[in-house]
Amino acid sequence: MPPADRRHTAYARCSTHENDRTTPADRTTKGPTMDFDLSAEEREIRDWVRTFVRKEIVPLEPQVLERERRGERGLTADELKGLQDKARSSGFFGIQTPESHGGMGQGAVVAALIEIELGRSFVPFRFAGEADNILFSATEEQQETYLRPTIEGTRKSCFAITEPGAGSDARAIRTSARREGDEWVINGEKTFITGGHEADFVMVFAVTDKEKGADGGVTCFLVDRDRGWTSTPIDTMGEWGPAALVFEDVRVPHSAILGEEGKGFELAMRWIGKGRYMLPARALGSCERLVEMGMEWARNRVTFGQPIAERQAIQWMVADSAVEIEALRWLVLTAAWQVDRGIDSRQSQSMAKLYGGVKANEIVDRVLQMHGGMGYTRELPVERWYRELRLLRIYEGTDEIQRRTIARNLLKGHATVRGHLG
Ligand SMILES: Cc1cc2nc3c(=O)[nH]c(=O)nc-3n(C[C@H](O)[C@H](O)[C@H](O)COP(=O)(O)OP(=O)(O)OC[C@H]3O[C@@H](n4cnc5c(N)ncnc54)[C@H](O)[C@@H]3O)c2cc1C
Q: Which atom of ligand 1 is nearest to the CA of 397?
């Protein structure tokens, strides 16, 4: 039998479609076991955000770029609020915030789809109405003081676990809280705290039992700024900076504990694990836009009598980027889908975060390369994205820590290389 025929026979034997007697139409009506499509509602929400980004956000880009070049914020607080109010009037408020708290109560897949669309612009926009996931486990009284105002945007939170001596190794934190009667006295230093200079209150993690440490001896406290902690902004290579926080004999009542005494480390892990798929989702949107920009440039830039788009070197950059974007899309959406299904998604989330960080950086570098000298200038936003995307390989778990998690899960048998399909 000629090789081509042998291949055909082998395919016929393996192919389930050849063996079952249903027609493609039957299979569709029975419902496929795998569905890579979006529901009508998901598509509608995604399309609304896509239009909003195109009409309301993208036109602001030149102005945002100009302001950032002057060292100013890209959007003023009023401008951000104006955009958020506009979105809210169409129901876009608190994407993942439960409906009981006035939000849309959407799941992880919809949140990821939205984040991808928002990532297509570097304008620092986000929908209003979100709050840190761990604030939802606050007491009724704490919810009144912290959760509801955060959702309404009248108070700003920040999350503080990292310290100068404890980043990847978060279990090594030294900030302490000492009990004195009905009060706790907090001492220590936190660093790289996003929003730490603007926040009205902090969710700070402190050691309350040195013997137990992260295994039952870390507690989370809700601490208003007027209790006396101080903040100093940290300059970064990105357009906005986190802050260093100092706690010197900061006193809080016992009722400031979020969750339970000694259960702070679990809360911290819940906050960090809330959405590792969300950071790569945003980067994915940025990569889509960057590759579109790169292709547009390549079609128009002529060297040696031909557009550079005609050159294989450039075409391979486009092709590799498109494949990686598609792979990232499915890593992100699989992780989000698992979250919605209540399946343990930690392995998938780490994979999405790692792959997103690595590939987004490779893609932005290629797109910068396609632009030649112009890519390196501040006239185009490519270098801005180049600097912004670099952070993805560091915060909320560095590349190395994601690899450590992924390998450990595999080696200890918590996950298999066959993924969730088994
Ligand atoms: C802009 C920005 C915003 C941030 N926002 C927040 C925030 O809001 N709240 C907060 O609490 N923290 C925040 N962080 C802190 C961030 O999570 C940490 O920077 C990050 O976890 C890495 O910790 P580190 O900087 O101490 O690096 P280190 O832990 O010192 O790591 C240094 C290097 O060693 C590698 N490494 C460490 N351990 C291992 C190991 N076991 N095996 C192999 N390699 C290893 C790391 O991957 C890294 O490459 C932010 C950081 C930045 C830059």
A: 21
347-401, pLDDT tens digit by residue?
A: 999 999 999 999 999 999 999 999 999 999 999 999 999 999 999 999 999 999 9
CA neighbor of 136 nearest in space, from 110, 98, 107, 106: 98
Q: Which of 204, 206, 222 is nearest to 214 (CA)?
A: 206
Instruction: Decide: 159 in ligand 1 pocket, CB within 6 A.
Output: yes
The first and second tokens of residue 133, run together, are 């996931």
State if residue 369 touches ligand 1 by the CB under 6 angstroms criterion.
no
Ligand 1 pocket mutation, candidates 392, 398, 408, criterion most atoms within 8 A of CB: 398
- Residues 6, 11: Cα–Cα separation, whole Å: 9
pLDDT in tens, 268-323: 999 988 778 999 999 999 999 999 999 999 999 999 999 999 999 999 999 999 99
pTM above 0.85, yes or no: yes
Q: Is 193 in the pocket of ligand 1 (CB under 6 A)?
A: yes
C-alpha closest to that of 119 among 386, 385, 317: 385
